[in-house]
């Protein structure tokens, strides 16, 4: 299954940010909290929890590169038990691995789990884009269309319309597929994406 480079770059950037900068940000968060003792304690607890998750995620992410079943099991356990950004990122990793193993249903499960705990809108957009692709591969076109409606940032427009066109084409609605591809060309997006859309339009039956 094709995953666009821009998506992978965003995921890598998010991972680097939380691994490299997370500790400093968390320390600053705790230091900057006001004098209310209860609030201080709560923030300190949250910061410590996130720092532990960051360390665990870094180890798990590295272990997943080995491709061992033990590493995969550890990642799945961590993803199920962690309800913060590191749980989201681990589920994204698990979805990617599942797709590579042609376990599309497993990828959908991981992405749906990630969406339940993701709090950043940009990350939710990326998750919904990937989820729509997975649902299309699972022959769930209606669910895939619903996932696309959850993508808010206009920067995704060309990619969203590309996937929407593929979904509508699979449903046999050639006219609507053509309209979606055309809308994607007219929206802001990478030139390469627009070239792909033009090729798809030219490949449609009259």
UniProtKB/TrEMBL annotation:
Top-level taxon of the source organism: Bacteria
Listed Pfam families: TPR_21
GO molecular function: protein-containing complex binding
GO cellular component annotations of the record: plasma membrane
Domain Ancillary SecYEG translocon subunit/Cell division coordinator CpoB TPR: 15-205
Presence of keyword Transmembrane helix: yes
Keyword annotations of the record: Cell membrane, Chaperone, Membrane, Transmembrane, Transmembrane helix
Membrane topology of this protein: Single-pass type II membrane protein
Subcellular location: Cell membrane
Chief place of localization: membrane
Segments traversing the membrane: 24-42
Family recorded in the similarity comment: Belongs to the YfgM family.
Protein name: Ancillary SecYEG translocon subunit
Species this protein is from: Arsenophonus nasoniae
């Amino acid at each position: 299954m094709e995953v666009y480079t821009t998506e992978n770059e965003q995921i890598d950037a998010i991972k680097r940010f939380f691994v490299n900068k997370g500790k400093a940000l968390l320390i600053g968060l705790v230091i900057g909290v006001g004098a209310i003792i209860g609030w201080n304690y709560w923030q300190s607890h949250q910061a410590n929890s996130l720092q532990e998750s960051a360390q665990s995620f870094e180890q798990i992410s590295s272990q997943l590169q080995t491709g061992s079943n033990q590493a995969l099991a550890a990642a799945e356990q961590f993803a199920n038990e962690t309800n913060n950004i590191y749980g989201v990122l681990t589920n994204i990793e698990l979805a990617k691995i599942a797709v590579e193993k042609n376990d599309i249903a497993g990828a959908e499960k991981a992405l749906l789990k990630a969406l339940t705990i993701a709090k950043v809108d940009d990350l939710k957009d990326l998750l919904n884009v990937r989820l729509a692709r997975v649902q299309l591969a699972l022959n769930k076109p209606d669910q895939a269309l619903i996932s696309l409606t959850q993508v808010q940032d206009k920067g995704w427009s060309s990619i969203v319309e590309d996937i929407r066109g593929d979904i509508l084409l699979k449903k046999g609605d050639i006219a609507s597929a053509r309209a979606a591809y055309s809308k994607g060309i007219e929206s802001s997006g990478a030139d390469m994406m627009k070239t792909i859309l033009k090729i798809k339009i030219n490949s449609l039956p009259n």
